[in-house]
Amino acid sequence: MVIHHMKRIYLTIFLLIFAFCSTKSQQPARTVNFSTPISGVANFDSIADAISGLSAPGTIWVAIGNYTEEELIVPSGITLIGGFPGNATSLNDRIYPGRATPSQQSVLDGQYEHRVATVYGTLDGFVITKGYAFDTIPNSITGAGGGLLIDGGTVMNCIIHNNVASELEPEPGIIPGTFVGSIGDIYCTDGTIIQPTYSISSQGKVVASLSTSDSLTLSQKTPQGIIFYVDPAPTTGRIHVMGKTFTDPRVWFNPRFDVTNLPNVATLDEAMEDFNGHTNSDSLSVGITRWIQNNPPLHLV
Fold it and tell me: Which residues contact residue 44 at a Cβ distance below 8 angstroms, ignoring those fewer than 6 apart?
């Protein structure tokens, strides 16, 4: 009886210690822009300041909001997690960007001035947008990764869109996406462009949502289709739309084109081993340009 009683005591103590350690292990080393500070955890105004001087391993929780800092360097052993309400107290309080409304996301915005981040550690739960990397030397690593350059690190649960890797220095007003539209936007017959917000439903489906004002605008317009290509050449302002034809509104335009040098990736392992993003993008650009020349798009604006 005594032996069994002692075992129960030891087991209880072990479980309490385990629960305490598990709780502590989920607490961040630092937070960014939290409205309600976590006891014993330093809160910073910027992500760069929170990263500075933090010893690995360390975790930083970032509150929702739009961050327009200089290029972030995420060191090895440092984990940066976004999507937290300002009063979060638990890792379970985070909101994944694919399930969040725009006001619930942690957005890293490069403003088309620089790469958003270089990752040696872990970047988790952010929207990466408007990054710009360039080098006049073709295939240079300096000009790679407009949004992110991952060097031994891990990026997960992120939305990465509207970033540019180029051989041209960024110039205000001619960056693709800043003066026409973006892939996934709705193009109307009168030239109006409406930008839905895309998210992932609980069933794993991609859902497009419109604001009240955009819904009202769309109700007064005639949708022509969805933008599937934005010409990267500066100042052209051309976009290509996959949409219904004027002659038969039931028929949808379905582009088919062959890309000579683009690899046919069949498995996740093959995709993970393909590091030729710049070359693949060039091949895709050449292939779709050739196809467009032979198959005029529905709209050029």
Answer: 30, 31, 32, 33, 50
